[in-house]
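Trying the structure run again after the queue cleared.
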Amino acid sequence: MIPDSVFGGVIAFLCAAFAVGFDAQTEVGGQLGRRYGTSILRAWPAYVFIIGWGSVDVGFYVAFLFNHDWAERAFNVHVEQNLLLTGVVVGLSAVAIVRTNLATVGSFQIGGEYFYVWSRSFLIDSLNRRRVQARDAFLRHYRSYCETFQVIPIISSGERTNWRNSPRAARNV
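Done. Tokens:
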């Protein structure tokens, strides 16, 4: 029982990390579009985001192990005898579980939606800041080369003919 529950927790964490990371990557692609075509794993907030929400999902997995009825009523997750399968189900449904309202007190709904969306927005903001910093560094480095280009004079047709007939132009062709 204990090895299965530990392995189930590890599987829940890995599946949740995949589900949350995939959700964040698609949201980054939707928000930044073509401006950001690389992986979210290029910035440290992505690791914090994935590990944090994966850990929250492991907490839900442990809570489901002790409260079978609550898991079935609140999330429609049936805790099976096979705890590894339960880990897969809980892990892959991490985004749905985190975004579900856990309880309602009066008219106030308690859930993880606010914190999940806030952390994902923080991730998008940090990736965008990183992109802007990289662009500014690129421009700082190469702007001096671009500013030293001389303006190319407009050559009239007569000067163009003289240039073509010059011996120097024949050597360059």
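The chain has one domain: 2-145. Worth checking whether this holds up in the mutant runs.
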